[in-house]
Amino acid sequence: MQRDQLADFLRRRREAIRPAEVGLAEGPRRRIAGLRREEVAMLAGISVDYVVRLEQGRSTQPSAQLLGSLARALRLSDDERAHLFHLAGHQPPPADGPANMARAGLIHLLDLLCETPALVSSDLGEVLAQNRMAVLLMGDQTGFTGDRRYMVYRWFTDPAERAAHPPEDREDYGRSLVADLRAVAGRRADDPVVAGLVERLQRASADFRRLWAEHEVAVRRVIHKTVLHQRVGRLAMECETLMTPDQRQHLVVLNPADAETRERLDLLRVLGIEEFPTGTTDTTVR
After folding, report:
1. I need a surface site. Which of 17, 154, 215, 253 has the fewest CB within 10 A?
2. What HEC string does the chain produce?
3. What's the CA angle centered on 231, arms 226 and 232, to 5 degrees?
4. pTM above 0.70?
5. What is the pLDDT of residues 243-272, one digit of tens each?
6. Are 172 and 117 found together in one domain?
7. Domain that holds residue 34
8. Residues 259 and 208 reside in one and the same domain
9. Whether residue 111 sits in one domain with residue 76
10. What is the pLDDT of residues 126-173, one digit of tens each?
11. Claim to verify: residue 135 and residue 260 sit in the same structural domain
12. pLDDT value at position 275?
């Protein structure tokens, strides 16, 4: 762990980011151009005291998970993120591996889409980042572990996931998830992560086995989805998916499909966020 270099890097990256870039108001009394330490702490979900100790070179070695949170909070590029991990004495996760984090460019787009629910996911449906409206819509989706990280696994093994969709839509939605997973399995034919997920799903769900055997293939780019939200009711959404060139990360934007849904999303924005336990859905949307 290179404490002095790590401290200098974190200070300089914090000072280089304008508050507006991360959705914060600059305010008339701000004395510095960059972020305050308490703002970094808030964005990363860590204590202000630990941010101070990191920047003063007095901290214990941060975990890989904490470094990932800091990388997202500071909007680090792939190269900067790798440098951060090296300075902290860790091997950085592979840029295109199963443990990847949302690309910096996609994080910037999330910040711009402040009025519209949007998220970044892996090609296997693991949510890597969400904007505030997406959290209001579906709760914090970034805290799942194990196979529950993947939407397709939760859909076929957890009844609570399907309960957020009207009964008449569930067969088609499950079919679309399986068809999308088929496309991923074709692109990543030698990837043990994908093969293992498919194998475990086949053991866990008869519905998955039935749909997998039909060998339908369809990448989800634009789909219509109806969500049953516990606070504002029925929401009709048009889900638009934009992909990175390697198709490993997706930016999913959820637009209201009608005026009534737009009004209900506006109401949700006004109601604000309550405490959502990490990894617990208020609704389920991808």
Report:
1. 215
2. CCHHHHHHHHHHHHHHCCHHHHCCCCCCCCCCCCCCHHHHHHHHCCCHHHHHHHHCCCCCCCCHHHHHHHHHHCCCCHHHHHHHHHHCCCCCCCCCCCCCCCCHHHHHHHHHCCCCCEEEEECCCCEEEECHHHHHHHCCCCCCCHHHHCHHHHHHHCHHHHCCCCHHHHHHHHHHHHHHHHHHHHHCCCCHHHHHHHHHHHHHCHHHHHHHHCCCCCCCCEEEEEEEECCCEEEEEEEEEEECCCCCEEEEEEEECCHHHHHHHHHHHHHCCCCCCCCCCCCCCC
3. 55
4. no
5. 887 788 889 999 998 999 899 988 888 887
6. yes
7. 3-87
8. yes
9. no
10. 998 888 888 888 888 887 888 898 999 999 999 988 888 889 989 999
11. yes
12. 43
In Å, what is the CA distance from 121 to each residue of 23, 41, 151, 230? 20, 24, 10, 23
Could you tell me if 116 and 203 lie in one domain?
yes
Q: Which residue among 20, 52, 87 closes a domain?
A: 87
Per the listing, tokens 């499909």 go with 257
Q: What is the CATH number of the domain that holds 228?
A: 3.30.450.180
- Per-residue tokens: 20: 């507006």
Q: What is the largest CA-CA distance in the chain?
A: 62
Number of domains within the chain: 2
Q: What is the pLDDT of residue 174?
A: 92
Cross-strand pairs, 243: 250
The pair of structure tokens assigned to 105 is 């460019």
pLDDT in tens, 95-119: 544 345 777 778 878 878 878 899 9
- 108 lies in the same domain as 83: no
Q: Where are the alpha helices (DSSP H) in 113-223?
A: 132-138, 151-157, 159-162, 167-187, 192-204, 206-213
Separation of alpha carbons 54 and 11, rounded Å: 9
- In terms of domains, do 81 and 131 share one? no
Indicate if 140 and 209 belong to the same structural domain: yes
